[in-house]
Amino acid sequence: LHDKFTVKIVKSTLGKLSKGSAALNDAYKDAIQRIEGQSSEYYKLAKTVLSWITYAKRPLTTTEMCCALAVEPDETELD
C-alpha cells in the first residue's frame, strides 16, 4: 500500500485482497520471499527482528524495537 496515495485507492486495493487462511499464507510467503531477496545484512536483521516479535510476551512498540536495534553484544554504549 506504500505506493497508494489516496484513501479511495487504498480502500479499493484492500477490497481486492484475498481473505481467509489461504490469503494469510500467501501474504506470509510473499513477505518471506521479499526478506530472502534482500542483502545478507538486511536478511539477518529481518530474521532477528522477526524473532523478537515472535518471542515477545507482548506487542513491542516502535521505540522498543529501535532501542533493541541500538544494542550490540559486548558493547557498553548504544549506537
From TrEMBL:
Determine the domain of life of the protein's source: Eukaryota
Q: Which InterPro entries match?
A: GPIID_WHD (IPR054471)
Residues in GPI inositol-deacylase winged helix domain copies: 39-73
Q: What is this protein called?
A: GPI inositol-deacylase winged helix domain-containing protein
Organism, scientific name: Melanomma pulvis-pyrius CBS 109.77
